[in-house]
Task: inverse folding
């Protein structure tokens, strides 16, 4: 046997094993914000190449200053403001697994509440509670308005930009 | 099989067991009542109620509980300031912090209470209040962001929900949602009253307040606010009110809070290079 072949075989094995290790060791971070923008460069002026969602897993390529270069599951590479990532997988803010199972178990009550949860202002339950507890109409209206008051994510983004906060810092 | 599936299966098994226990208790109770004996049924019924009380509170249920507590807060503090520009500003700062908090995927609602005392409160499902008295002591947007961050941390860590969960178990109520409000309105009211008393009169456990201080400052720093702004505010309030535990009876004293926040800033590696935005705060826009 030619001595060059075992050498090539060893090199091939090393490359495969090295590749596997690099995949296994690639650091993963998760989006720690309701939404985040993946940009082509590490400034807020760079083009947005993807919109990321809360909890999305990202493979870290490198970190420079306050920005981290990452690769999404769909293969898009770009930069995210590092404060919007976490190394710990977010548990989710709505219902955890037990609560979801609980909703299934509770059946009809959950489906009734779903309808009211999407409605404007007070839910049927809290409205009924207000009546029974003698809460004034003025105070009911206050919580109703508070609940219905909406600020869009874009308005928050504009507010951050004006204040030169986070990724808009100069 | 991944961890998520494992958790889902564990949750399903847990609830399957709870469902069987509750159903078994209900059937046994009915059978006992028919036969005139009640002791065995009572025990099983109690077990079923206990199992129900242990159920985690889902978001829809949390929303109703949060609104009910918010109603009591608004009623007790004489309503909120109805100033559209101020409401928009406080909501913008609050939303900015909430969107990068540890629980960014639920709606948050912010309001200023018409009250001159110095305090702030959070109810479940993202209802956050700051008194006009505390707002008057704040000098810049970074300080406001940290205060709102503290309250958002109570929501993200579900501190009040833990109180309600315990209250549900004591009241023997398996659920505090729509069905409970219709079937047992008094029990639902008792749960809310207990939570309001704990929130407004007795205060949460001090370690929860310390956790909210640390996390709230981290949340504000993630947005880009200077984390030391919160130290400046707490120091100002200590100068104003001292460490008298009668004041801020619902929180640890200021000196303890300042030490804890200082330690948290160091341990989280937060840099004092964020912004304060005093001018924008003065304009409230």
Result:
């Amino acid at each position: 046997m030619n001595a060059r072949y075992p050498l090539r075989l060893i090199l091939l094995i090393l490359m495969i094993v090295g590749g596997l290790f690099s995949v296994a060791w690639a650091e993963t971070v998760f989006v720690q914000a309701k939404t985040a923008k993946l940009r082509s460069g590490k400034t807020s002026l760079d083009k947005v190449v993807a919109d990321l969602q809360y909890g999305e897993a990202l493979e870290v390529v490198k970190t420079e200053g306050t920005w981290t270069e990452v690769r999404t599951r769909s293969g898009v590479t770009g930069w995210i403001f590092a404060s919007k990532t976490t190394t710990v997988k977010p548990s989710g803010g709505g219902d955890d697994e037990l609560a979801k199972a609980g909703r299934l178990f509770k059946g009809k009550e959950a489906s009734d509440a779903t309808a009211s949860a999407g409605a404007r202002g007070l839910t049927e339950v809290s409205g009924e509670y207000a009546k029974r507890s003698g809460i004034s109409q003025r105070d009911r209206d206050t919580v109703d308005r508070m609940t219905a008051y909406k600020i869009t994510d874009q308005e928050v983004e504009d507010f951050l930009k004006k204040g030169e906060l986070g990724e808009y810092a100069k | 099989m991944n961890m998520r599936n494992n958790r889902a299966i564990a949750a399903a098994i847990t609830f399957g067991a709870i469902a069987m226990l509750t159903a078994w208790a209900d059937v046994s109770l009915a059978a006992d009542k028919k036969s005139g004996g009640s002791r065995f049924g009572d025990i099983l019924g109690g077990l079923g109620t206990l199992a129900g009380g242990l159920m985690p509170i889902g978001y829809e249920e949390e929303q109703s509980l949060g609104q009910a507590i918010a109603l009591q807060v608004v009623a007790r503090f004489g309503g909120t300031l109805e100033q559209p520009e101020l409401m928009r500003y406080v909501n913008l700062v609050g939303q900015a912090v909430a969107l990068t908090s540890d629980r960014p995927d639920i709606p948050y609602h912010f309001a200023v209470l018409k009250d001159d005392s110095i305090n702030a409160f959070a109810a479940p499902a993202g209802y956050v209040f700051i008194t006009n008295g505390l707002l008057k002591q704040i000098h810049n947007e970074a300080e406001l962001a940290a205060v709102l961050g503290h309250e958002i941390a109570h929501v993200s860590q579900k501190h009040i929900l833990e109180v309600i969960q315990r209250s549900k178990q004591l009241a023997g109520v398996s659920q505090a949602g729509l069905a409970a409000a219709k079937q047992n309105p008094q029990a639902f009211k008792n749960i809310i009253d207990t939570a309001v008393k704990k929130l407004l009169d007795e205060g949460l456990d001090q370690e929860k307040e310390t956790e909210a201080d640390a996390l709230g400052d981290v949340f504000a720093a993630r947005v880009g606010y200077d984390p030391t702004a919160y130290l400046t505010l707490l120091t100002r309030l200590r100068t104003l009110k001292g460490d008298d535990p009668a004041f801020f009876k619902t929180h640890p004293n200021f000196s303890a809070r300042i030490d804890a926040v200082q330690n948290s800033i160091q341990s989280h590696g937060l840099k004092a290079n964020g912004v304060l935005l005093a001018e924008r705060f003065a304009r409230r826009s």
About this structure: The helical segments of chain A are 4-25, 97-106, 108-117, 124-132, 137-148, 153-162. Chain A has two domains: 26-90, 97-162.
